[in-house]
Amino acid sequence: MRKIGISEIEDIATGAALLGAGGGGDPYVGKLVAIGAVQECGPVTLLDPEEVPDDALIIPIAMMGAPTVLAEKAIGGMEYKRLYDMVSKFFGQEIYAFMPMEAGGVNSMLPIAAAARLGLPLVDVDGMGRAFPELQMVTFTIGGIKATPMALTDEKGNSCIFETITNKWTEELARAVTMSCGASVSVSLYPMNGKQMKEFGVHGIVTRSEKLGRAIRTVKDCPDRVPEEAFLEFTEGFKLFKGKISDVLRETRAGFNFGKVVLDGIGEYKGRSAYVEFQNENLTAAVDGRILATTPDLISLVDTETFIPVTTDALKYGKRVLVVGLKCFHLWRTEKGLELVGPRYFGVDTDYIPVEERCKGGN
User: Fold this and answer.
1) Beta-ladder partners of 262
2) Which carries the bigger pLDDT value, residue 254 or residue 125?
3) Which residues pair with 25 in a beta bridge?
């Protein structure tokens, strides 16, 4: 058990943006929401998963929709209390703690804001260890946990609770309502007890995000280390490419950000080209036509000088980025995991090969 204040939030936002694999929304927007809540209501208590009673009711808090929309639409302020009231009334039980659903610029921050404003603790666990675009894409689905009852509300006060037959149906129906509400809503889903959370959650995600964010912030403080080498070492990342963005194709469709970013090589990659395709999160990275990483492994773009992560909605012509591959949580590499989030689910015509295998022998 420890406290999360403003300095911790700064680092968590940066680290979670890296783990968000390009998705999860603008970390700056999410950071402002969380910092504002902590400034008004005080720091948040972060619990280790093992500190949570097995019979406690835990609920994730997240936004659903296109991250680019949230940057303009923002949060109304009453969504967290409305979600809390809907879920606790449904179960006839008080909620013990909130938790993040994924790592990402916004969805790592909103649960902190909710915990601060409602005076509840936050559990150091999530359901992805990264970010994914569809709500059935969580480790809890692998564990057979239902996404419903799912509470949904928008900033105007429209709200509903879903009960569905499968988690994929939850995604389909909630996506339709999200689009009717302006492509961005606040949700609580996968309500679970402490025992389920401990068994199938990705433990330590908030702490890992904070450590990564701190390391990025201080990466240039060691004059005897090459910053890029230090960055790759502490992230345990694989260097896929370094280049300048030469083109960005992007569209918002069905509540998702779809697109492709094209890169021209710089430095040791001069004369070579690469591209990264995304659906909210980065899905594939290819260099000279050869795929070097795919979902569910993480593909992240970071600034070549500061190593600050660059989300898909912040991609701009001329920006110089380092493309990095990170190993995903082990459950995603299982048969059930790959059915949910493997490359073929997203229409990519390749089998999943771990990033460390694809990168053997250089690129």
Assistant:
1) 247, 275
2) 125
3) none
- Short-list 20, 10, 31, CA closest to 214: 10
Q: How far is CA 27 from CA 39, 296, 308, in A?
A: 18, 21, 11
User: Which amino acid belongs to residue 97?
Assistant: A
User: Which DSSP category does 186 fall into?
Assistant: E
The answer to whether the bond into 296 is cis (omega within 30° of 0) is yes
Calpha distance 33→113 (Å, rounded): 6
Cα gap 263→303, rounded to integer Å = 13
CA dist 241 and 224 (Å) reads 24
pTM: 0.91
**What is the H or E stretch that residue 247 is in?**
strand 238-253
Q: Which residues of 40-65 are buried (b: 16+ CB within 10 A; e: fewer)?
A: eeebbbbbebeebeeebbbbbbbbbb
Asked if residue 67 has pLDDT above 80, the reply is no
Residue 232 C-alpha from the chain's centroid: 20
Helix 6-19, helix 205-217: angle, nearest 10: 100
Q: How far apart are CA 355 and CA 294, in angstroms?
A: 7
| Block residue for tokens 């345990």 | 236
Q: What is the 3-state secondary structure (H, E, C) of 63-89?
A: EEECHHHHHHHCCCCCHHHHHHHHHHH
Tell me the per-residue pLDDT of 203-257, one tens digit each, with 9 for 90 and over. Answer: 999 999 999 999 999 988 877 788 899 999 999 999 999 999 999 998 877 767 8
